[in-house]
Amino acid sequence: MPYFEKYETPDDLMRDDTLSREEKITMLEKWRDDKKDYMRATDEGMEGEDRAELLKQIKKALAELR
């Protein structure tokens, strides 16, 4: 996943001037979808930390780009 090891937060990704607007949208959408899947799995009994706040940040960043 492109954001792992490089971006801690959606704001970090947004500040990366080497990415185009379209690349940022694509990466944020993938990140959002991964977090939704993770949260769904957590709801189904799989262990892990809740990342609802990160999901909110991702959605906010996507709204800014659109």
**Number of helices, counting only DSSP H or I runs of 4 residues or more:** 3
The poorly predicted ranges are none
Q: Specify the helix fraction band.
A: 55-70%
**How many domains, in number, for the residues?**
1
Topology:
Layout: H1 10-14, H2 21-43, H3 52-65
Helix pairs in contact: 2-3
Structural overview:
Helices cover 64% and strands 0% of the residues. With 66 residues, it is mainly alpha-helical. The protein has one domain (10-65). The two termini are 22 Å apart.
Q: Descriptors for this entry?
A:
66 residues, mainly alpha, 3 helices, 64% helix
Short note summarizing the structure:
64% of the residues lie in helices and 0% in strands. The chain is mainly α.
